[in-house]
């Protein structure tokens, strides 16, 4: 194989790399940012795709974030690749914050009061082992899904604006640089072909 490691990673090392990248999350985020900027689409399509991915990351529907982001990108006329990249908003560092805030906000929106939130006792392992979605929906998924709507809307708008203006500036600068290079090549050809 062409790009195989010489020394095979152990199971513990692979697990660590799955949770925490080797070169850090900052480098991974910079890479994804550059991938978004270099997509070949309109600024609106790219921004709508990223916003769709961010919105999907707020939902508690783990495993369906890509599907949901693609559906939202289709509705918003967004780029599907940008939607997939936008789901990186939900990662091991942000999921605890996302889940805690959407759970709490969902209970506030549903007006369940502070007492019920503090006394919710759920045996999650038992519910998941039996896959009892009816009992999982009411105490956990429903408040998280409803609580995800306001922050998803706000962060979707924020990331749409940030991505739209960044992509538009990048594409303008790129067109200008390419035009300058084409002009320089044309002038070099014309001077090379001119008689002495």
UniProtKB/TrEMBL annotation:
Q: Lineage, please?
A: Bacteria, Pseudomonadati, Pseudomonadota, Alphaproteobacteria, Hyphomicrobiales
A Pfam family the protein falls into: DUF2062
Q: What is this protein called?
A: DUF2062 domain-containing protein
Output the InterPro entries linked to this UniProt entry: DUF2062 (IPR018639)
**PANTHER family found in the cross-reference section:** SLL0298 PROTEIN (PTHR40547)
Which sequence ranges are marked TM in the entry? 36-56, 62-81, 93-110, 145-167
Residue span, DUF2062 domain:
27-175
Cite the entry's keywords alphabetically.
Membrane, Transmembrane, Transmembrane helix
Q: From which organism does this entry originate?
A: Georhizobium profundi
Q: Which domain of life is it from?
A: Bacteria
């Amino acid at each position: 194989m062409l790009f195989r490691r010489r020394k095979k990673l152990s199971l513990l090392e692979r697990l660590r790399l799955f949770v925490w990248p080797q070169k850090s999350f900052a480098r991974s985020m910079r890479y994804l940012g550059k991938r978004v900027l270099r997509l070949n689409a309109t600024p609106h399509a790219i921004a709508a795709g990223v916003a769709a991915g961010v919105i999907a990351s707020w939902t508690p529907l783990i495993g369906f974030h890509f599907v949901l982001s693609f559906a939202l990108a289709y509705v918003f006329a967004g780029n599907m690749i940008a939607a997939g990249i936008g789901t990186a908003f939900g990662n091991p560092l942000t999921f605890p914050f996302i889940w805690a805030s959407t759970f709490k906000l969902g209970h506030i929106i549903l007006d369940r009061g502070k007492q019920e939130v503090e006394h919710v006792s759920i045996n999650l392992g038992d519910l998941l082992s039996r896959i009892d979605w009816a009992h999982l929906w009411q105490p956990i998924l429903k408040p998280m899904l409803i609580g995800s709507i306001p922050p998803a809307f706000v962060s979707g708008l924020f990331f749409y604006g940030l991505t739209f203006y960044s992509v538009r500036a990048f594409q303008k600068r790129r067109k200008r640089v390419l035009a300058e290079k084409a002009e320089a090549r044309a002038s070099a050809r014309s001077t090379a072909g001119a008689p002495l």
